[in-house]
Design brief:
This protein is α+β, with helices and mostly antiparallel strands. Helix content is about 35%, strand content about 30%. It contains 5 helices and 7 strands; from the N terminus they run βααβββααβαββ.
């Protein structure tokens, strides 16, 4: 775990901590998930009750899928000045580090926080001497820009996603 990601950066006070196993982070994690899904949900011709039900189902499905598919992953909360603002799920495999999920609340996006977070996180694969990978929706322009800025390059296309890879030797 990275205890202090960027103490001198303009977005200072950025830290990671493990997700609470007792469910204390559940409301935050659901709100984060809902904020990421908001643009997609806004396009659906359903009422707020149905939207809430669908969001809860998708959230439970995503959570179960991540836990089953990545049983050894680190599930961490990104905090800025002791306030939760995001999530990072990292799975360290023998031949690469895989970033399963990286998400920030809307007010934390576009301010350099994601870049600072991931620059610090890249110290782990650099230290281990292995590449890292991430899958991104091919229409997620902001995420694709972030990963390109960090030096990630396309590895494989798996519509509707693109797998990107970063290597310290590249």
């Amino acid at each position: 775990m990275l205890s202090n990601l960027s103490p001198t950066a303009p977005v200072g006070g950025l830290t990671l901590r493990p997700e609470a196993e007792d469910g204390r982070d559940e409301a935050f994690l659901f709100a984060l998930f809902a904020s990421v899904k908001a643009p997609e949900m806004a396009l659906m011709p359903i009422d707020d009750c149905a939207r809430g039900y669908l969001l809860r189902m998708q959230y439970r499905s995503m959570t179960a899928s991540y836990r089953a598919g990545f049983p050894n992953a680190r599930f961490e909360i990104v905090e800025q000045d002791c306030e939760p603002i995001g999530r990072l799920v990292t799975d360290v495999q023998p031949d690469h580090v895989y970033y399963v999920d990286v998400a920030l609340l809307p007010h934390a996006r576009g301010r350099g926080i994601g870049t600072a977070l991931m620059r610090a996180a890249l110290d782990e694969p650099r230290r281990l001497g292995i590449p890292c990978r991430v899958k991104v929706m091919s229409d997620n322009v902001a995420s694709l820009r972030l990963w390109a800025r960090l030096g990630f390059t396309p590895r494989a296309e798996m519509p509707p996603q693109i797998e990107l890879e970063w290597s310290a030797t590249a």
